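Re: the 937-residue chain
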Amino acid sequence: MNKTQLGLLFYFTVVLSSTAHSQGSLGELAIDQTATETIRAATTNEAYLTRWVDSLPEHPTIPSPRDVLGYTIGTPGELTQVDEIYHYFNALAEASDRVEVFQLGQSFEGRDMLVVAIADAQHLQNINTYSSYLEALSDPRLTDAEQAGAIIEQALPIFWMTAGLHSPELGPPEMVMELAYRLAVETREPFTTIRQNVLTLITPVFEVDGRTRQVEWFKRNIKGHTDYFNMPPRSVPFWGHYTYHDNNRDGISISQPITENYVNGVYKWKPTISLDLHESVPLLYVAGGTGPYNEGISPITIGEWQLLANYEISRLSGLGLEGVWTWGYYTGWYPGYMLWATNNHNSMGRFYETFGNGSSETMERDISNSRFAGADVTSRQWYRAAPPPEKLTWSMRNNTNYMQTGVIASLEMVARNGEMFLSNYYQKGLDALEQGAAEAPYAYLVPQEQKDPDSANYMVGALHRHAIEMQRATLAGYYGDVEVKPGDILVKLNQPYGPLAKTLLENQSFPSDVEVPPYDDVSWTFGLIYGVDTKPIDDESVLKHTGMPFNRRDEFLTASTLPEEKEVWIISNKGQREFGPARFAMGDVEVFVSEDSFQLENEDYPAGSYLIDMRRLDRVSSEQVESVLAQTRLIVNNVAVMPEVAIHDLDLPRVGVYQSWTSTQNAGWVRYSLDQAKIPYTLFSKDRAREGDFLSDFDVILVPHMSGGTSLGTIIGGIDPKWSPLPYTASSESPSHGQILSSEDITGGMGFKGMAAFEEFVREGGTLVTLGSAGVIATDSGILRGINKINAGGMNTPGSIMTAKVTDHSSPLVYGYDEFTYVFRGNAPVFSLPDYDRRYSPLQFGAKDFDEGSGDENSPPKGSGNLDEEEPRPNPPLVLSGGIVRGADAIDGKPAIVSKPLDDGHIVLFNWNPMHRHVNHHDHAFVYNALLNWNDL
């Protein structure tokens, strides 16, 4: 049969299916009248129905969602718990040979993640064969063009959709149950063609911990509320154990189990297309991105984004749906979204944003003030030819109809063009090989000589998690001006994922004249965020270097070898990420830190180096120190005498971490980083704050970054008390609540009593450390005087790596850092100081000198540590990687850290978030410095 005949067959099948539909059946199946009546009753406007979803077939032996759950998807007020969703999919798989359920992995809290495969029965019987076809196409070094062509004729594209990543986005896990049923039983087009030509994978709930909590939250607090702007908070306070909305930003470090499970699934299945289902942009946004696009992404992929988006818009518009659009939301630059695991590996990944209420109740909605990319969402644009009305009644069923129709259209497009998508997949790998061999840099070097060996190990581990191939150098030599030594790691770019390797290792340069501001971070350079020395190699001959494969189980840099002598042990502080945690791990052992740089036995030691007099320790303490240090990669030297340098004891603090109930996201990342570093702390919130007397429990209180626009009023007032009591406690109906943190009533903030407790804590000897926007606790309350706040509205530093300059080397806060260093800064207020108080800022943004007349700030800083005078070198630029879209002058030369005493205590303000998404490991030592030197600042 030729393509013309196939096209006519498809046309007449659609026409016949539509006719049968109107006569009371759907293809060969009867209509489920009960479900169909519910669908139409729950849809608030006939314009929000399409012929694909306005009725549900009734199969004699295969259960629909209604048969198992007792209600039709989209029924107002109904919401399905994770175990019930899984129960349905298992029932569907048991009844149909077109459905199979696989384990994907487990969440942090041990809940299962699933993958549901749907296709014709013979395809599922040979699913491993189809997976092997895509594995062969993924590496053109092993599969030549002729072999690829033969494989493509037999292969099926794999389309993997994911639902429930963001927990309050309730619709996708509901919709995919009905979609799966249709794909399994429908005999109409395009369902039959989709089953025949696509292997569909569905992960029904991605963030399983969060969905579990969210459904309990809905039933406990939201069900019955129908005024969108007058109800308790729609989102449960915690989603995952550590991550909140940023669970979709973990694709750089791949630190969380759910991310790693998905990424490993991508490597196993090699999906051709991925689609992540989200809410809640009116009415349906199909991703295409505004650009600028990530430079490591193939032009083929960008073309596929637009191809599918335009097909979906055209198809859905033809089916009568308004408000379907693309372009004006999201950039397409940041590679750390979960779905970019496919884009980064030569497949194609996209997402939907479908309008939702954050509830399964029906509500009146006014979207007249919704704007994206500078235009009203209700305005007609080239990318939104049929805009939605300004006011509408919206339901969960509307959400299901739009999303499901879009997915069916997308699957239809892939089913009818599978050969093209598979050919593109193979071609992208081929292009990557050719690009890596045709243009500099040809490779990146990771030398063995690192100031932070542990971070170097972490970085190469992250490269492994991204499936980047690496080699151990076997020969010494120079490639251009880059020296390679045996044992160094080479990352050659002539590999299938070479563009990704380049993206991760190079410095980013985000343009400042963009039409639409960036949607997320614009830099992620591995060598900088992890504090690891990497070098691009522009000499093509490096590709001929024969190295040994460096595999995932191999160790790059080994653990420390401790001195045999036990006199005075010295550990040089170079800002290593395990330097601070090692001190905590030693426990109640006497450890001193040098207050200045010094030289001993031809070794230079910077300020902040550890000194441990092993002769003074008892056997238990000595063994504890040895046990801790033997597990690190810190270099330990033994000397015969204690050096003649000013020192102070590092007293271990009792650390409290304050978290507001209005903002748990960044606190979650701080908890994760501290837990990974094994630093003990107590998490507390407004209930404990109101009790006061912090000094009975804490020496240091760390307040994580909240959001760029956090106000003191939000911190004091918290959630509106009109919803009181609003409990977050475990109960028989909500057993997942009360984990991590618990409260009988999360409304109200710390109040003025809590604010007074913070002031009392500092004045009586405590140390308050705030990250990013949390500094308003000290500045806007008046606890700390003389601080000028430069608001984020005056600048846009969207996640860039910026130069920082140490202006007081004697400050313990900058121990381990060179005069010119760098930090990763996103948008947040800058807490500045008048010139006469600049002595309270040991670190500034940029290399700009202080203004003339600002006291003695241009004189050499105390304890600068320069053992030998060197020729002045050019100052580094303000931005090392990323870009400043607006306001470079507003931040250049401004304080990065403010450190001021207050009576017997101290306040430290970080003017950026040094614990951002467990990404900027290079910055963590600043925080550890503040914690460990809490009473010597």
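The first strand starts at residue 25 and ends at 26.
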